Amino acid sequence: MNKIILAYSGGLDTTVILKWLQENYDAEVITYTADLGQNDLRDDIEARAKQAGASLSIIEDLKEEFVKNYVFPMFRGNAIYEGEYLLGTAIARPLIAKRLVEIAREEGAQFISHGATGKGNDQIRFELGIYGLAPELKIISPWREWNLVSRKDLVKYCNENQLPIEDSGQNEPPFSTDENLLHISYEGGILEDITSEPPESMWRNVKSLDDASDSGEEFTLEFENGDPIAINDEKLTPAEILILLNDLGSRNGIGRLDIVESRSTGMKSRGCYETPGGTILYKARRAIESICMDGDSIKIKDELISKYSSLVYDGLWWAPERYAIQSLIDNLSENVQGQIKILVKKGNIIVLSRRSDKSLYKSDLASFDEEGNFDQKDAEGFIKIKSLRLKNRDN
């Protein structure tokens, strides 16, 4: 009998897929669920999977691994897609793909299946990740194979097969969501009308500017080797740091985003996001880098942001060029350490102070009032050399 590892959320789509795989592939199906900090993770996932026929249901807490080995390395690269999106969904997929592959090998499975649709990015991210790690495995994407096209079709299939799923969509939001410790995304449904603003009731965590505190909150964020290690002088684990930054950001209206982005499949898609902790972390990292990295190193990293971000967005985390860029980024991050004092207030992230034992900032050198071991006459030769190409061009 075939053996399939199914990425399983416990919702309507993947529950139908679980049964459909058994019927159409004469297969034993093992479900896999990754806990990445999503608050909507069902308590009854294992029971639902078993009721729908899974031979084994695996649920793992990956929050610490997710933040330490995926979120933090990505933020070392200041990754931001198309100038705005902090890649909260995209960065979760390589970790899930890795665990699916590892479990497939442990269980002797020949197939991996997922519930991503044929129009979205996630099918690409999952499958490129799996092929990058285990080209010998085969992938089943039911949404590209079956003739079920709507929620009504899925509910009918459930009823016909006595599957454990609610047959009413009255309590479901009029859009789709994806959540992990870094962000919540909202897309589809009523959000497909880009002329209309999203309903205020949609936002789960980040307060509106009207509801955010008038006084704001101050705190310090400490970095070492490019990663945050402490808040207000308290050493915390990577996941604990992101959780606390999420709380600080959410209370103070930080991290709401409403954009139209370019999907890997070529179409435009509207996405709304809540990334409170990530938005603070991005700002704080740029602040500590500004005193710990020289100008040319900052320029090199900035030139790589678009390429690196696209690799993450397009599901190429396991590609050789991502490893190469990551190696450079990590090398440049070795001296990025120190402490940033921040005020978060009414949607604003305000850097109050910076300090570091690795700081390249010298007040006497930068001052207009002191010589600081800098001969101003040296600037004349520098300007002459830099101006040669401007003087010699045809006007």
Summarize the structure.
By secondary structure, this protein is an alpha/beta fold.
Structure description:
Strand 8 and strand 9 form a beta hairpin. Helix 1 (12-25) packs across helix 6. The protein is elongated, with a radius of gyration of 24 Å. It has helices at residues 12-25, 45-51, 63-76, 93-107, 122-133, 151-160, 238-251, 276-292, 295-313, 320-332, 363-366, 378-391; strands spanning 2-7, 27-35, 56-61, 111-113, 138-140, 176-179, 184-187, 217-224, 227-231, 234-235, 256-262, 268-274, 338-345, 348-355. It starts with a strand and ends with a helix. The protein is of the alpha/beta class and 395 residues long. The protein has a 5-stranded parallel sheet with strand order 3-2-1-4-5, sandwiched between helices. Strands 10-9-8-13-14 form a 5-stranded antiparallel sheet. The longest helix is centred in the C-terminal third of the chain and has 19 residues, at 295-313. The chain is built from 12 helices and 14 strands. It has 2 domains: 2-64 and 87-160, 3-Layer(aba) Sandwich (Rossmann fold), CATH 3.40.50.620; 176-355, Argininosuccinate synthetase, chain A, domain 2 (Alpha-Beta Complex), CATH 3.90.1260. Helix content is 39%, strand content 20%.
List keywords for this structure.
alpha/beta, Rossmann fold, Argininosuccinate synthetase, chain A, domain 2, 2 domains, five-stranded parallel sheet, 12 helices, 14 strands
